[in-house]
Amino acid sequence: MADLRDLYQEVILEHSKQPRNYRELGDANHQAEGYNPLCGDHFTVYLKMDGEKIQDVSFQGSGCAISKASASMMTQSVKGKTLAEAEKIFERFHKLVTGAGHNGDQEELGKLAVFSGVSEFPVRVKCATLAWHTLHAALQGKQETISTE
Amino acid sequence: MTTAANTYTDFGPSPAAAHAGYDVQRVRRDFPILAQKVHGKPLVYLDNAATTQKPQQVLDAIIRYYSEENSNVHRGVHLLSERATEAYERARGVAQRFLNAARPEEIIFVRGTTEAINLVAQTYGRHNVAAGDEIIITAMEHHSNIVPWQMLCQEKGARLRVVPINDRGDLILEEYEKLLGPKTRLVALGHVSNALGTINPVRRIVELAHQQGVPVLVDGAQAAPRLKVDVRELDADFYAFSGHKIYGPTGIGVLYGKTSLLDAMPPYQGGGDMISSVTFEKTLYNKLPHKFEAGTPHMEGAIGLGAALEYVSRLGIENITAHEQEVLAYATEQVSAVPGVRLIGTAREKTGVLSFVLEPIHPHDIGTILDQEGIAIRTGHHCAQPVMQRFGVPATARASFGLYNTREEVDALVRGLNKVREVFA
Q1: Are residues B118 and B258 located together in one domain of the fold?
Q2: The domain over range A4-147 is classified in CATH as 1.20.120.140
Q3: Quick check: A113 contacting B, CB < 8 Å?
Q4: What is the predicted ipTM?
Q5: How close, in Å, is residue B248 to chain A by CA atoms?
């Protein structure tokens, strides 16, 4: 049986209550909106890119604890990274939450490994990846709202 | 075994005489799915507004149909086809009596409420609505009673008007009266709101519309399983409901329409069964109800639905209403008392549905944690996004009750909500 505490780890709860980088980025040069029509989660991710490098990143919006914590921790993990590095982290993260990852990935992901419990709750995978899909859209410079459906 | 009467006397005032003999534990034994465990806990199924569970009587009717009667309806001369036709048409008669329709031909079998509404929009609507005309709906409609009208309005250049609701979730009737006018071609509204539980004053709404010569379509998806519906007493022109929400199979539902309206409407889909003769030059359409039932119908579904309506009628819809009101009243009191809970939808007349938020915890998180406790509720926008916007919430948690739910299950829900609060403490 999946354990609730594996999903709602302390770090996740803490980030959901006090999300980091939760603000509009005044000098953002990329941004995208993400929407999960199933549960109404709705986030905007802001990026300030310096060439290939993510100089600053923030987000705003509303959603469940998993989606909000994921967005918060995402901003921490990709700040200062290059576009390619950020995409690589997303790839590993996606494998982690869908249960397709390897142990090595968990180490590479560092703090983000707390989301491994999500793989036991398949309907919550979209919550955990919404901000990442939105980041991806922002990095690609897409303007339209992306949807998990 | 605890009898229903004993259970109820533990709590407050005695139940209405109408359901004094309603034995909910005995009713529960008719539903095999309810006996199972979910995540190691007894299943507490509180998602009845989404779909209901099926009694053994319905399952048996479907097995019997395939074991003894299966054949195509309305065409074979052989014995099995006669049996299948008889069983299918018998189900129509059951639906007619259930709604107190004047004639069996006024019962059209469709896939569900959604298809029923689309049928009316695409036939009656396209035939009678023109540029500049108006269709009235309400602010508490399910998407399936919004989008078909929006599509029609877009096609015709007509205008969709929306009757507003107040903070409790009651329709503002004065606004409705103001919207009704010479341009109105149709009024479409839910009998009971799936997101709020509001029971709308359909009789009054129909009366006002008829004073202007405007027909009314009633979405009865949530009402038919919970309230006595008499289409002639309501004087509804169209009334739609779904089989799966009234303890019957999925993929089957009923559109009731007054003969005079159905007769004047063009067919919906073309194909077999809806014709009386076909040449390449001209096709003559079949008479009611077959004109609207193109192709081999969902025979198993109709027969299962017939069995479900008989099941509900045998228990007595008045008894079911009284039982569910009792459970809803208890749930309203108990869930409101959980710190942080805010009810969404507190209409004067409500049934079946308890929508709430437990701020700041997102409904989706509530749903996951309750699921681990074996409790099934719905979380999200309930296919009624305008209602969510009206109340300024992205989503709600919704417990919805059926004829087999008990006060003990409400207690389990409250324990579950306290667990949610612990996890997020």
Answers
A1: yes
A2: no
A3: no
A4: 0.88
A5: 26
